[in-house]
Amino acid sequence: MKIKKEVRLLPEKNKSIATILAFALVPLSGLATDIYLPSMPQMGISLNTSESNIQLTLMLFLVSYGLTQIVAGSLLDVYGRYRLSLLALLLFIVASLVIATTDSIWVIYCMRVLHGISVAFIAVAKRTLFVDIYEGAKQKSYLSIMTIVWSVAPIVAPFIGGYLQYGFGWRSNFYVLAFFGSIMLILELIFSGETLKTRKKMEIIAIKNSYSEMLQRKDFRYGLLMLGISYGAVMFYGLSGPFILEHELGYSAIVTGYVSLFLGAGWMTGGFLSKALISKPLVSKLRVANYIQFALVLTMMLSAPFLSNLFTIAIFAFLIHIAAGFTFSVYFPYCLSSFPQYAATAGGLTGGITYVLTSLFSYGVAYLVQANTQFGLAEGYLLLVVGGFFTLILIGNNFKKAQNEQESKLNLQQCNK
């Protein structure tokens, strides 16, 4: 007769420490994607491979991270948070060490997929912790802080990575990731524990039906497209910008890191603007942001033959990232709140598909344009802005219809009660 070993529950006295650990692990996705961006040009030289092959390492992470998020929530509800997150941390450490020591681009591809899968489980588990152990105003407060902490990583990571590249080479980025993962694994083993009180049964049909209902809403589908396009603009620069600054303009990885820090501040500024204008009509403010992006991109293209340098690239990209951050921050809450009856599933589906679309759009445009000048960078931005323009037309046509349908459903539910 086999005796089932019980998972250690999170001790009440360790709630505060476990919360701090969760805040430390939530930004891991941004750290894993952005810390080595300044090193990408040197990686290509060191591994004797093309820019597009190095850029593919980022796309593979984003795709695997996005797809895994879609199913991770359901698995964590069935099997618990603690053991799966520990296993994911261990796999993350192994993948980081393998990347840091290999000379094979194909091995790096496999390990970046493993990175994406493991980080998805860690991120979803740690986001869920705040819902598991807190309630009411405290829960809302911690979730708000979590969003801020998550947004800081993509801003700071390239800045750190630039100095690592300059001082120790591209492999140091992945040694740092492995070291960070190891410290967090030890702390999790000592202080953390299981936070899931009641495990759910795996109900494939129910999950499938909820996904189907959400994806049937046109405004939701087009919203996912808009999220992928707006975040794709940011990642497109991440794929192309370091090569332009370091290969074409001759700047160091440290400069690349500072520029990424500057652009990250632009993305965050867009988020703050979206909160300030939260009461304005959704479609109208999205259109204004899209028109501003059009004007900025066209100005960037027209001025390129006469004025093209580090500062013009950084300033134009900064302003475009403000508009992209604004668009993302406007529509992301809309998608999350469209299905209150499937809150957790909607969050996983929105985040997962957004990352998949981001990877496809950013890598696709980077591969198609092969930007190595300010004009080429503007061309890539233009493709994404045009895509956003047509998506907004579809959103505008379906937004009011979807709102009316939702109001009709709510009225019907109230009548039935």
UniProtKB/TrEMBL annotation:
What range(s) does the Major facilitator superfamily (MFS) profile domain occupy? 18-405
* Name of the molecule in the record: MFS transporter
UniProt xrefs under Gene3D superfamilies = Multidrug resistance protein D
Q: Where are the transmembrane segments?
A: 56-75, 82-100, 106-125, 145-166, 172-191, 222-245, 251-276, 288-307, 313-334, 346-369, 381-399
For this UniProt record, give its keywords in alphabetical order, as a comma-separated list.
Answer: Membrane, Transmembrane, Transmembrane helix, Transport
Subcellular localization(s) per the UniProt record: Membrane
Question: What's a GO biological-process term for it?
Answer: xenobiotic detoxification by transmembrane export across the plasma membrane
According to its UniProt entry, this protein's organism is Flavobacterium hiemivividum
The protein's topology relative to the membrane is: Multi-pass membrane protein
One GO location term (cellular component): plasma membrane
